[in-house]
Amino acid sequence: MPTLSSALDPRSVIVLAGVMGLLMSLVMFSMRRSYPSSIRGLREWTLAPLICFGSTVLFAMRGVLPDVLTIPLANMVLFQGCITYYAGSQLFLGHARNTRGWSIVTPVLGAVLFWYSQFQPSYTVRLAVFTVAIAALFTAHASLYLRHPLTHLGLRVMTGLLVLQATVAALRFVTVLLGEAGTNLLEATWLQVVYIVMYSFTALLMSIAGVLMATDRVRVEFEFMATHDPLTGVLNRRALFAQSQKAFARSQRGETPMALLMLDADHFKRINDAFGHQTGDEVLRELAQRLQGPLPASAHLGRYGGEEFLAVLPGLTPDAAHAVAERVRADLARPFDAGSRLADAGIERLTVSIGMASFRGAADTLDAMLARADAALYRAKAAGRDRVEVA
After folding, report:
1. 91, 158, 252, 337 - which has most CB atoms within 10 Å?
2. CATH number of 4-227: 2.60.40.1740, 3.40.50.970, 1.20.1070.10, 3.30.70.20?
């Protein structure tokens, strides 16, 4: 009966792993071309399996090409491919690329492997050195993910695979210490075959995990685009009404009070006419950013239309909501920071007028609340602007 080691030739497994990695590189390349540029790391995840494919070609040519190519260079290329995977994860998770230290390890690793292949040949030492280095790299890579919430399947799969890779490399090092290193990479022992198969299998799944993570990120971005105003980043009108209806339904059930704040930038048309629409857009972005500071965490802020914004305040009594409105008005009236684009354009400050309406009981309606808030806003405008009026 054939054994595992006789059924699986290490050279064939290495070649197969390289071909699968090459195919995954093509998949990632296609995704990178079609996915938004805001999803960072796809370039590195495309290059990584391609680099690793180059290493598998060199490994598979052991005994055909000179050892200097199939031992030190092949391992250096493989190690750099794993570093490139790591760099992709750093970018994907919102970090700056920081792999310089690991890239310095690559030539040092190559020099050690060169010495123990050309001048003092020892497969045991080479295997021990490489497994320690790769285990440390995979541990650092896994730690990067463990510092983030593993909220989605792709993140959990990637983290588990990296932990598995680090564990397999560490266990392979233990077998070296126990005298089970073998004589060379292509020796068809069960231990060598299991090590190569495990590495090849998890490397393939890492690319699949990358696809899952990128796809999930696209879904999240599309959901954000569907519910948020592209200029200011706050809720769009449709999403704002949905949140208003939820808060109103809770108030009707007698669970919580609620209030609405209708806000309008004072003299906004003058800004557009005097400084242009690009500066006007910058004012709206600044307005939306400043609005979010004084609002409670439970509030929902959205762009109602043009220079008008609506803040939904669930759980606030009329007095509490009025206090929030005054804080919002005062915070927005602060002068723009010196050196900012708006200050440089000659706009010193921006004020807002605010109309407030609170829930009045079971007979009230959301449309009525919005109408009262809108009417209060117009009274604030008529009374001189930069003020809060309560319906």
Report:
1. 158
2. 1.20.1070.10
